[in-house]
Amino acid sequence: MTGFYRDGYCRTGPDDKGNHAVAGLLTNEFLDFSASRGNNLRNIGLTDGCKWCLCTNRWKEAMEAAKSADDPVVPKVFLHATDESALKSIGLEDLKKFAADGETGSGGGATRNPVTQTPSADGRGPIRETH
Q1: What is the per-residue pLDDT across 7-59, written as a single tens digit (0 to 9) for each?
Q2: Residues pairing with 119 in the sheet
Q3: CA distance 14 to 69
Q4: pLDDT at 91
Q5: Long-range pairs for 89-92 at CB < 8 Å and ≥24 separation?
Q6: What Å distances lie between residue 112 and 39, 83, 85, CA to CA?
Q7: Kind and range of the H or E element at 77?
Q8: Mutual orientation of helices 28-36 and 56-65 as an angle, nearest 10°?
Q9: CA distances from 127 to 18, 71, 114, 116 (A)
Q10: Which distant-in-sequence residues (6+ apart) come within 8 Å of 130 by Cβ?
Q11: pLDDT higher than 60, residue 131
C-alpha cells in the first residue's frame, strides 16, 4: 500500500522526512533513476505502472534530469492526489507539465488533504493498491 503512512494516500506529516507528497505513476526509467540514487523501489515490489507516493525531492531531481517534457524518467503526476506540501519544493506549473492524462482539464491541482478520486474496482471507494 502506498503513502508514507501506508494508508493509500499521499498525505504527509512531521514524521515523513522525505515528504512523500507527489502521487505518481512509476516508469522503468524512474525506477532505474531512483535506484541510481540509492533508493531501489523494486526491492519492495514496485514495477512500471504502479501508482506510488513519491518523495518530492526525488521527483524534482528526475524532472531536472529529464532531457525533454516527455522523458519517461519523470513519473506522470496525479494532481488531485498530490499533497499541497509538494508545492514547497515544486512549482505548480512544473507539476502540471507532467500531469497524467485528464488531470489538467479537470480543475485538478495540489490539494491540502489529498483525496484519491479514482474509484476502486467495485466503484465504492478509493484505489489503495500500488498496481
Answers
A1: 878 989 888 888 999 999 999 999 999 999 999 999 999 999 999 999 999 99
A2: 126
A3: 32
A4: 95
A5: 89/19, 89/56, 89/57, 89/60, 90/22, 90/56, 90/59, 90/60, 90/63
A6: 27, 6, 7
A7: strand 76-77
A8: 110
A9: 23, 26, 13, 7
A10: 1, 2, 45, 46, 50, 51, 52
A11: no
What is the rounded CA–CA span in Å between residue 91 and residue 85? 11
* Grid coordinates given for 13: 506529516
Please list, residue by residue across 4-30, b when 16 or more beta carbons sit within 10 angstroms of its beta carbon and e when fewer do: bbeebbbbbeeebeebbbbbbbbbebb
Tally of CB atoms within 10 A around 115: 13
C-alpha cell at 100: 497524467
